[in-house]
Amino acid sequence: MSGADTDWRRELRFTWPVLGARRIAGEHMTLAPIGLAVTAGEVQVGLDARGDRHLLLPVARSEEVHEDLRSAHVRLKRESLRVEGRVQHYADLVCHRTDLGDLFDDVVSEVLQRLAVDGGAPAHTCRQTLDAWREMFQGRGGRLATSEQRGLFGELTVLEHVLHGDAFLRPTQIWTGPDRVPHDFRLPGTWDVEVKTLGRGGSTVEIHGLDQLAPPPGGRLTLVLVRLVEDASGTSLPELAERVVAAAADSRGVIEQLAKAGYSTADADLYAGARYGQPRLLGLAVDAGFPALTPADLRGPLPPGIDALRYTLDIADRLPDALDHEEVVARLEGRSTP
């Protein structure tokens, strides 16, 4: 053990940018030692493919980790990673919200300080520290905006149909929207799906970035439009989330992606008021003739100084030729070829 006098907050401020510079596209986790060892090995900090921060505390294979999955924003779970050719088991404290980074670093610093004094039970120490900070995270987390709730409802609608076709698909691999990648779903057969919600008569959608309407290399992209109409007798977001969790063989995977999307069952009452009738789905193939801005249109990335691009697309003239609800559902459920 070492580090009782270390300024852990300062170490973290230095380490996160270094990890960010070392990240490799597609790599599950980029790790770095933080300068502290416990009984089962060296403590690591990490950035995952989504950019979320992790504190990884080594534990023995047989050691119990009392997971804390109550929050959508900061969670403690068991994780296994291959490090230098062997599998290492961790108590993984992860923060899914970039705007909570400073507060998360305060929690991590306190965990490290406690472990530097007594590192005999890292998972227990981490859980105790997180419990002490829980109230502050609940006050800072915030709720999903109405547009975010509708967007999540649309993605869950699509996920429910996909799982109806094959409940054993891994949600963390196919439902990629919460991972901040360009497309919401990456389905078998190199078929990507981007989901947008529409109101009763809407025909415009907001596109985020140059890659959102760029088909995957060697694959296909479908823009699935989920038309939502409020109905007091319909389904709420918490009811749909609970239904999808129950439908998946890997229910924990759905819960993990929900957390990344900012949804927590602890906040279910906040979202129970808005209800929607049976969603209707439409599908548009995004091909070379589809109106979109992609990296190919700019002949490269965005110019220096421009960090992001967002535009509104009116697809009214394409709706008459869109795949209808039955065909889209059949394709999502694997009963028809996309």
TrEMBL record:
Q: Which InterPro entries match?
A: DUF4420 (IPR025534)
Q: Which domain of life is it from?
A: Bacteria
Under which name does UniProt file this protein? PD-(D/E)XK motif protein
Species of origin: Streptomyces gottesmaniae
